[in-house]
Cadherin-5
Amino acid sequence: MQALVMLLATGATYYLGLLAAAAAAVNPGRPNTPGSLPAHRRQKRDWIWNQMHIDEERNDSLPHYVGKIKSSVDPKKTEYQLRGESAGKVFRVDKNTGDVYALERLDREKISEYHLTALVVDKDSKKNLESPSSFTIKVHDVNDNWPVFTHRVFNASVPEMSGIGTSVIQVTAMDADDPTVADHASVVYQLTKGKENFDIRGSGLIVTMNKHLDRETQDKYEVVVKAEDAQGRRGESGTATVFITLQDVNDNFPIFTQNRYTFSVPEDIRVGSPLGSLFVEDPDEPQNRKTKYSFVQGEYRDTFTIDTDPSHNEGIIKPIKPLDYERIRQYSFTIEATDPTIDLRYLGSTSPKNIARVIINVTDVDEPPIFQQPFYHFQLQENQKKPLIGSVLAKDPDAAQRDIRYSIRRTSDKGQFFGITKKGGIYNDKELDREVYPWYNLTVEAKEVDLSGTPTGKESIVQVHIEVMDENDNAPEFAKPYEPKVCENAPQGKLVVQISATDKDITPRDVKFKFSLSTEDSNFTLIDNHDNTANIIVKYGYFDRERAKVHHLPVLISDNGRPSLTGTSTLHVTVCKCNEHGEFTLCEEAAAQVGISIQALVAIFLCILTFTVITLLIILRRRLRKQARAHGKSVPEIHEQLVTYDEEGGGEMDTTSYDVSVLNSARHGGAKPPRPALDARPSLYAQVQKPPRQAPGAHAPGEMAAMIGVKKDEADHDGGGPPYDTLHIYGYEGAESIAESLSSLGTDSSDSDIDYDFLNDWGPRFKMLAELYGSDPQEELVY
């Protein structure tokens, strides 16, 4: 009570402060008297208000009275007005009394409060008598709405076999009434369908009521939920449907589709290849099918394995080692199917194991021979021929037990060094050199044959590795090429070069090479260092380059093999001029002293060969040109619209070769020969016979000119001729010609029997013809 009084006193003080501040704002120049309220210019209203209330959905007749606006101003002079969005539409005020009315029934769920402004004005001047005052009209809620679900349909899921009380889904229904008014917005839920398996709690949470919900029996459930108002209006409610899907859990063991499986498989099946499948039924969904197949009591675990196909949940049987019809023809064993991932809490009376019998029959096939070893390794001493290096052996695994014949693939023994007997014995036909090939890898084939020796079955191969053993058959030699040099004024004891040796044979760790000079008659001496090296030093000093610029020094090198071998290697020591510091200034290479090098010989040979080829090509070209001229007239040259005749007139002496009736027809007024059609082109080659020679004096002077004129006039006035120019060559030369034709058309001197050297006697005018047709003595000499 004391706290309430203090709260009221605090509120009163707060409002007094607000009034004092308002008064100061109205009369800022007037001082306030301590302990008293400020004076106002206008007359003080006798009420304070800022809020009105009205119930929603009132059933009485409109308009509905809301409240009253009062003022201390003379009522006869005042007029009340409302301003705001809803003024005049939803609310109005009596301008004389200030009563506020609602013009329509209000719905709080649409608009819960309205904001208006009240005005007190003069009736006549319409001026404000009071400052505008804002106020609020709040709509009181009544319980006039029933709950509505947020969705008409809900979807939910829960694992099968879940315990009682497992949450499924939370459903919610909304009541549009004012939640601040007691029980106006409270909702009560209940199930109208699905009560036997599910329940709903006060907040709308749906839970399971049956712990034996089995997806394999029924996987979907439909539940109907009703929501009611907790107060008053229970006749009105909202409903929603919830579809609940059971999620699968691994609660079922696999069961074989049959109790006995029988398979037939050939004995040559590849290891790891599938030979058959075992099928089981598991009602769980694929992701929960984890079938494991195993052998009962370890039967044939070392022969077969069973892999699980995760996509089909089937067991695939595969052999893990080769099968042999001749050894075991049938396998029989028991298979067990289990699922190790099953939660045992979900199991009922179902047996956790399921078994089936599997029988595998092995069928016989014609198998290739089988070698007793996967590969063979033999050793052979080099430089020897042995009738038997080693033997290979293969057998027919089939019951027929056929004979085996052996052979060596030629691709593995291209040098044909080895042979093999019918029984598999390998021998060498040639001596082998370890330094050439230390190993030989042979491929031996084994084939089944019948009694006559004819191959009948399959073949198999095996690798045979022959190692050639070393013997001391190579003499030592220099480890590398040496090119020693020495100054001509080298002092006694000067080191020229240090040499070492190598051996193509296998060099043991304790190998010892001995060095010596084959002759002591030189200006060099050899000192053996006894570490497989030797030093060549100057014996006396000073060399004469004029006598010998290169000294050839044979060195004997011996090894300690059995037997010991000695080889000779030659050092070519070049004598050089040196400066005072002992540096070489002038040397002749040892190879230059021997003579012409191989490279020089090859270059000389290539030059000679090139010159010979060029000479032959020139001669061949000239011969071909001569042959072309000899046959030139047999290949006529083709030109468009050019008629070439291969015959010429022989003058007055030729009276039998040519038929000049065509020309003579013009002179004697004969009939004109027919012209070709307009669309016909003249023949490329026109064969014209030589006209017969006339007796001397048979033609009048100028007859050639007359003939040409006639032919020209004939061509000019012939309208049926072709519309293009054509060159005609006539073999008529006129009468009384004392010389034969000199035309070069169709003539070639290379194949003519006529000697044209007489043209040289005819004077300068025939000089060109003589050069063209006369023989060239130099050309005849070349050919």
